Amino acid sequence: MTGNEILAAIPFLGLGLLAGLAHFYLLRRSVDLIASEGSALGIIPLVLVRFGLIAAVLWYAAQYGALPLIAGLGGFLLARIAVRHLLKWG
């Protein structure tokens, strides 16, 4: 693994972070809809968009190799840690 490969994987860290933040924002919206007894027609699209977004980002990163895929997943996990910290979930 060269320095250039590591530098090439950094944008995927940011992409994973952005996708993770979007994922957890949509998760929050889904929970709010469930709590307010919203219809399933409003919840199902949010769930499909959440999973589709993460799947698309990780698939895109995987097309460039293992290191970008790991960086994308790392960005997603950083988003999870940030959201948990900001919302005081533990």
Q: Provide the helix percentage.
A: over 70%
What characterizes the major β-sheet? none
- In total, the number of domains comes to 1
Strand count: 0
Instruction: Please report the number of helical segments.
Output: 3
Class from helix and strand fractions? mainly alpha
Mean pLDDT: 91
Order of helix and strand elements from N to C terminus: HHH
Global shape = elongated
In short:
This protein is mostly helical. It has helices at 3-35, 40-62, 66-86.
Describe the structure.
The protein is mainly alpha-helical and 90 residues long. It has one domain (12-86). It is built from 3 helices and no strands. Helix 2 (40-62) packs across helix 3. The N and C termini lie far apart (36 Å).
Topology:
Elements: H1 3-35, H2 40-62, H3 66-86
Keywords:
single chain; 90 residues; mainly alpha; 3 helices; 0% strand; elongated
